[in-house]
Design a protein that fits this description.
This protein is of the alpha/beta class. The protein is 25% helix and 28% strand. It is an enzyme of class 2 (transferase).
């Protein structure tokens, strides 16, 4: 098939490479403009652009898709379909009909659950037991189009946003290749989304990653997993920011939220609103990630009864 591909990060690049290897003709690649990245803030190309250059594909990087000239340029390519995956720009309605089969989106959730920008993190935060890929026919709404194909995978207790992202990368690539075969063979049966089941996966804010110790141990564990690797769950210890990268829910106990209950070679046991959590991997500001036991070396002043806090701990002691 003749395909126009629109995408930006690794999630999209994985799908693009699968389409190329499946023998499809990629007549145009759309991706976001180069952005400053890294410590030196040097201009960096997207994962999709780098892959497209490797295969010597035509690449456009418009800052907006609202140009009528661009729309006509795309229409003139007479592509069979446009594939969109984590592009980052809203497609004007006029673009949705420029290809024979319209625009298909590779979405990292089981629609209508988790429409929007951060479906992977929101699924973990909500304690969902499964997620997956939906291949959707795009319309003028936000992830509201007809569903063409779905594949499910479990969310395991050890999954972080990164590991789940990687699994969905591979699954999304498989699904779009399979979906195009079904599309050509006219074996796809479009299904309407149930609006009553729709949830909005809003973009993650850094402030959300600050741990609220009043939550249950399970909820805090989900937060740590959902914000790994970005932006990283964090709290404060003795006035300094501390990122928390790995935790485990442990046996029930009684303590005030944020109170350190035990310190040992396994890590740091902290009381939550309900239950307790073991901090296994942490990182002080400006430092490297360490096992909690390593982090404790040289911190002889830290002891049970101390607090992790995000507020005035005096208030907590007197509540």
């Amino acid at each position: 098939m003749k395909i126009i591909f629109a995408g930006t990060p690794t999630f999209a690049a994985t799908a693009l490479e699968a389409l190329i290897r499946a023998g499809h003709e990629i007549v145009l690649v759309l991706t976001q403009p180069d952005r400053p990245a890294g410590r030196g803030m040097k201009m960096a190309a997207s994962a999709v652009k780098l892959l497209a250059q490797q295969y010597e594909l035509t690449v456009l990087q418009p800052a907006t898709l609202k140009s009528s000239t661009l729309c006509e340029q795309i229409r003139a390519l007479e592509a069979d379909v446009m594939i969109v995956a984590a592009y980052g720009l809203i497609l004007p309605e006029a673009l949705l009909t420029t290809s024979r089969y319209g625009c298909l989106n590779i979405h990292a959730s089981l629609l209508p659950r988790w429409r929007g920008a951060a479906p992977i993190q929101r699924a973990i935060l909500a304690g969902d037991r499964e997620t997956g890929i939906t291949i959707m026919q795009m319309d003028a709404g936000l992830d509201t189009g007809m569903m063409l194909l779905k594949q499910r995978i479990p969310i395991t207790s050890g999954d972080t946003a990164q590991t789940l992202h990687d699994k969905l990368c591979a699954l999304g690539a498989e699904c779009i290749v399979e979906g195009l075969v079904f599309l050509q063979d006219k074996k796809l049966n479009p299904v309407l989304q149930d609006e009553w089941l729709a949830c909005y996966a809003s973009k993650i804010k850094k402030s959300e990653a600050e741990i609220d110790w009043r939550l249950t141990a399970d909820q805090i564990n989900d937060c740590v997993r959902a914000f790994n690797p970005n932006p990283g769950a964090y709290t404060y210890l003795q006035g300094s920011l501390l990122k928390i990268w790995q935790t485990k829910v442990v046996s029930e106990g009684v303590g005030r939220p944020g109170e350190i209950m035990a310190i040992g070679h396994d890590g740091i046991v902290v009381a939550c609103g309900t239950g307790m959590i073991l901090l296994e991997m942490v990182q002080k500001q400006g430092g490297r990630k360490l096992k909690a036991a390593e982090f404790l070396t040289g911190r002889q002043t830290l002891q049970p009864g101390d607090y992790f806090n995000s507020c005035d701990r005096t208030d907590t002691r007197n509540d």
